[in-house]
Amino acid sequence: MSESHTDNTHLAHHFSDAGQQRESAKLGMWLFLLTEILLFGGLFVAYSIYRTWNPDMFHNAHLFLDVKLGTLNTIVLISSSLTVALAIRSLQLNDKKNAARLLTITIVLALVFLVVKYFEYSHKIHLGQLPGKYYTFQGVEGTNPHVFFSIYFMMTGLHGLHVIGGIGYLSWMLRNTIKGKYSSDYYTPVEMGGLYWHLVDLIWIFLFPLFYLIG
Amino acid sequence: MSASKAEHANHVLPLRLYLAVGAVLIVLTFVTVAISFIHFGGWNLVVALLIASVKATLVALFFMHLKYDSKLYLIVFLGAILFLAIFIVFTMFDTMERDQIYQIEAKPIRENAAMYDDSSRGMHSVPHDSIQPDSSQ
Amino acid sequence: MSSTDSALDLSFLRHPKGLKSWLLTLDHKRIGVLYLVGITTAAFLGGFFAMLIRLELFRPGPDIMGPDTYNQMFTLHGAIMIFLFIIPGIPAALGNFVLPLMLGAKDVAFPRLNLASWYIYVIGACFALYSLISGAADTGWTFYTPYSTQTNTSVISMTLGAFILGFSSIFTGINFIVTIHRLRAPGQTWFKLPLFVWGLYATAIIQVLATPVLGITLALLMLERLFGIGIFDPAMGGDPVLFQHFFWFYSHPAVYIMILPGMGIISELISVFSHKKIFGYKAIAYSSLGIALVSFLVWGHHMFTSGQSEIAAMIFSFLTFLVGIPSGIKVFNWVMTMYKGSISLDTPMLYALSFLVLFTIGGLTGIFLGALSVDIHLHDTYFVVAHFHYVMMGGTVMAFIAGLHYWWPKMFGRKYSVFWSKLACALIFIGFNATFFVQFILGTRGMPGRYFDYRDQFQQLHAFSTVGSWILGLGFIVMLAYLIHSLYRGKRSGPNPWGALTLEWTTPSPPPPYNFAETPKIIHGPYDYDKIDVQRD
Amino acid sequence: MDTTGTIFMPPGQSTISGEVDSLFYFILYMSIFFFVLIVAATAFFIYRYRRREGAAEMTSGVSHNTALEVAWTVIPLILILIIFGWGFKSYMKMHIVPKDAIEVKVTGQKWFWSFDYAEGATSVNELVVPVDKPIKLLLSSRDVIHSFFVPSFRIKMDVLPNRYTITWFEAKNVGVYDLYCAEYCGRSHSEMIGTVKVVSDRDFAEWLDAGSGSGEGSTPIEFGEQLYKSKACYTCHSTDGMPKIGPSFKAIFGHETEMADGKKIVVDENYVRESILEPQAKVVKGFQPIMPTYQGLLKDKQIDALIAYIKSLK
Asked: How far is CA A84 from CA A109, A177, A180, A198, in A?
């Protein structure tokens, strides 16, 4: 906006230099991630309380989740986390082509995750293992199995919404990368997207054992 | 508070580090799945959470660069975990300890939700003599 | 006069011109003014409902409304006042305006996010108020299950509104923390920050940490209504006391979202109008942070009669008392700041002193409610209603008004009438005490809260309280009148009408769009009245 | 005002009330002390250090006094720890029921209280207990959260759906005391008021024997009117023709009424009986199906008496 900053197209008028702007964005992003952790936190609390109240029901209900698909999705998500980290590394090295390639792989892996999730969901819906009052399945022993599936659908569903959001944001980043908007001088938006994507991965790292691997 | 540019020069980590961390994460995933098939009661949960925490730490330190960035971000991240832990633990001070004086206060009157009844979703009525509160103090 | 008018033309108020330039503005000062319009509207709407409630309670039995309408009225009063007025009040309106100026910055860190949070506020308000026409919720602002999952009023629209408003609050919080960390002018070290900034910082920490939990709580409540997920509804196998844990994990820290910035304002004002260095700067600054963090450990004191475990009650009661200490320290520090000062009783100072008296009563009555066995008797009675209003209205609202009168000449470049403003302050102080002090007695004598009708023995005290509310309402109408009058006819104000040392007073009144022509250099502390010879102008 | 009470507290009538009140007054006097201290110091400073014309523009730089700051941190801390310990001690007394307590099962529902005694007696909105005996209350709700509050006894306990909570009291004097619902529970929250009737041992035994009253020595209409009041029918049904939450009882018997599903029904003995036992079966048009069932709460004879009473309301 102001004349003195025409040398740097990415610098907003109220920052004095690019470093200040980048560190501001990073702190803002970390605070946003903190709110995400506490948003999921409420569901983790619900999970903890109901699991300690009904350990047997949780164990019996978890047998109806497919460990193979869960493991597959964990590998998929961890890989996508790696590729997005490598995409940022490529931008740091100014290798825009490689960055675009790695971002594409990340998005494809995220889509694979959703497809697997779709098959898991549709199987459960078919069996009537639905949340709350729509639960009609009869095969789980124990108290109130619908609560397990309520929590399962809410936690994986909220996580799934975050995956969809991530796909949207990363696709936008991919488009801008292909257009050449980012370079080793300025790649803050991709870096922020990376942090977000790692958090989505991080939450799944906990969801996986808590739902699929109840011993 | 503006920091000099040099301080924020791109900190490029070696490719091998990323690949190594990714490999460890995948190995740990298989390990935790394998262990879940061995039963050692309550410890299953502890081990599963421990492995998940190691994986999360690796992601946070290397993929998210917490090891190399300003300590402020680490404080923010740990703060989130701390307050989530407070939320869980303090809630459990209630939900796990309701039977400290009377057993009867800890359990719901009817374990199962009304929708599991074949008869009706009507109100429950418990005959008086069927509830014998445990008055042991 | 022509020179002063051109000063107005160059200020953020008139440059650039046009409605569109306001609605798309990224200037933190304009966004602050937009918020001010929003929260003032909400405050008068919520106040209108309060007046109707008090009128209905003038005598026993139905008078001007039936029980259903009454239940909707107190729900709307509570929800509007909390979510639309008090929580965004000081941070989003006054804080937005003042914070970058105090830091010596040109704007907040994320101006677009700042504007977005105002629009989210408006959208959330629309959802919350939509329930007015769709059969307003009658759950009380606490939305306790299973009542809130069973009632057939529009709970979802109200909770969705509060859910959306939460995002507005979170974005403001993120913006402020980053601004305070990253945008301080050279030399503006942490311990040279004005205490209002410390108050906003502590507030922002709570906003960021607690508000997401409100979001998930309200989401779970909506899902419970829609799907019967069985987390909070006992008919579906849920636990209603768990809802209370979720709700108060947010809503107790939220009362500190409301009071901490107010305490910050009072710290500024007592020092400025005593023309004296603040007593115990670090104690006040650290106690803000201390209150913010410990406030997360005390939520269970809202639940002493709820059937939570005795161990939880003990822990929560103990920690509740601990959080009282830093608040006490602040009060003592404010009083000692006046010692050896040069005190002038301008209108903002009168409001600040009203705060001191009313907040002290509010704080001390909190001790009754923290003590386990006494709380058993007082819980859910008018004692709690009175305590809450002494802290929230006698505390936060008084601080907000004090701050508004303090920064008014800076925001709009004009002064309000001294006579009318002091009269309004007197009316509000007297009316407030008349309305709410008797409610302590109602409560101890056993009058439960949220009662549409009551026993004859409470009639005199209720009538007294209602008459008090008329005086209070009159005070606010007078205030609105002279403030609006001052916008058009008020005398022009100089840059530093109170002789204050913080940075916002070094800019013209009102400030130009980018605040400072050059990034200011900070050489003295914000309260160095012992070193700097500062004059009013 | 009561002679034994004070401006703040109603007269304490239970064994715990003295302890609660002394803590209350301890905090009250302590608060008054600190309030006066703060306000007096403020007023003095305002007067003593008021702004004077022509005074020096710079003021004292005093901003610390370690002794003072330690004092105003430590003294309140000590006081507060005393209050915490005291409050916790009496709270535990409220929560641990003496072994020999008489147990009464309390059920809250929209919008009345019912009480079940081990001996089989039941009552609605009137808890009858003997004086000088500990009474254990086992509380639960049939719908939403209520809260059992007797100000004179200084006890309050939330009444939860699908869970039991426990509280107890021992009344010191014979008398009748107000019982309120303190947790907001909807439309008639403020009418969910009952009484606790403390009687002598002998009266209590007699009352238990009589069940909840069988109407001996009164006509069915009189007994019905008595039940109309004691079973809290009046909360929702008037006798003067004004509809409340439910339809008024005045002049309905023998008349045709339209139901919610559009059918028309003549109000007769069978319909009234069905409405008491299965309220949701046929709901009068314009009213919500919210009446709770009285199955198990009313004996046949009592229902007959209620029918007779409704019949009499011409």
From this structure: 11, 13, 17, 8
Note the pLDDT tens digit of each residue in A143-164: 899 999 999 999 999 999 999 9
Model confidence at D213: pLDDT above 60: no
Q: How far apart are CA C121 and CA C39, in angstroms?
A: 10
Q: How far apart are CA B42 and CA C80, in angstroms?
A: 47
Per the confidence metrics, is the pTM higher than 0.80? yes
Residue C104 — left, alpha, or beta (φ > 0 → left; ψ -120 to 50 → alpha)? Answer: left
Query: Nearest by CB to C216, which of A39, A50, A144?
Result: A39
Among partner residues B2, B69, B116, which is closest to A20 by beta-carbon distance?
Answer: B2
Chain A / chain C CB contacts < 8 angstroms: 116
- State the Cα–Cα distance between residues C297 and B90, nearest whole angstrom: 8
Touch test D–A: 3 Cβ pairs or more under 8 Å? no
Candidate from D31, D59, D188 with C-beta closest to C341: D59
Chain A residues with CB inside 8 Å of B63's CB? Answer: 81-82, 85, 194, 198, 201
Using a CB-CB distance cutoff of 8 angstroms, which residues of chain C are in contact with residue D289? none
Distance (Å, whole) CA C361 – CA C368 = 11
List b or e across A185-214, with b for residues whose CB sees 16 or more CB atoms inside 10 angstroms.
Answer: ebbbbbbbbbbbbbbbbbbbbbbbbbbbbb
If we measure between CA atoms, which residue out of C414, C511, C517, C520 comes closest to residue C28? C511
Q: Find the distance separating the first CA and the last CA of chain B, reported in whole Å.
A: 60
Q: Please give the single-letter amino acid code of residue C226.
A: L
Dihedrals φ, ψ of D135, to 5°?
-115, 125
Name the closest residue on chain B to residue A88, using Cα atoms: B12
CB proximity under 8 Å: C 149-188 to D: 150-151
CB C485 within 8 A of CB C412: no
Interchain contact, C184 vs B90, CB within 8 Å: no
Selecting from D49, D86, D191 the residue whose C-beta is nearest the C-beta of C342 gives: D49
pLDDT at site D55: 67
Cα→Cα distances D301→C509, D113, D221, D231, D305, Å: 83, 21, 12, 14, 6
The first and second tokens of residue C158, run together, are: 């109200």
Residue C393 has what DSSP assignment? I
Whether C97 has its CB under 8 Å from any CB of chain D: the answer is no
Q: Is C308 on the interface with B (CB under 8 A)?
A: yes
C81 to chain A, minimum CA–CA distance in Å?
24
Token look-up 């102001």 returns A2
Among residues D207, A43, B31, D287, which one has the least CA distance to residue C215? A43
CB contact under 8 A, C245 and B94: yes
- DSSP-derived letter for residue D59 is -
Question: What is the end-to-end Cα distance of chain D in Å, rounded?
Answer: 42
Average pLDDT of the segment spanning C106-120: 96
CB D277 within 8 A of CB D297: no
Let me know if A105 is exposed, middle or buried by CB neighbors in 10 A (0-12, 13-18, 19+).
middle
In this structure, what DSSP letter does residue C397 have?
A: I
> How many contacts does B have with C, using Cβ atoms within 8 A?
66
Contact between C243 and C144 under an 8 Å Cβ cutoff? The reply is yes
φ/ψ (deg, to 5) at C44: -70, -35
Question: Around Cβ C525, how many Cβ atoms within 10 Å?
Answer: 21
Dump pLDDT digits (tens) for A87-124.
Answer: 999 999 999 999 999 999 999 999 999 999 999 999 99
Chain C interface includes D41 (CB < 8 A)? yes
Q: Distance from D280 to chain B by nearest Cα, in Å?
A: 11
SS3 A105: helix
**ipTM of the shown complex:** 0.91
pLDDT surpassing 80 at residue B131: no
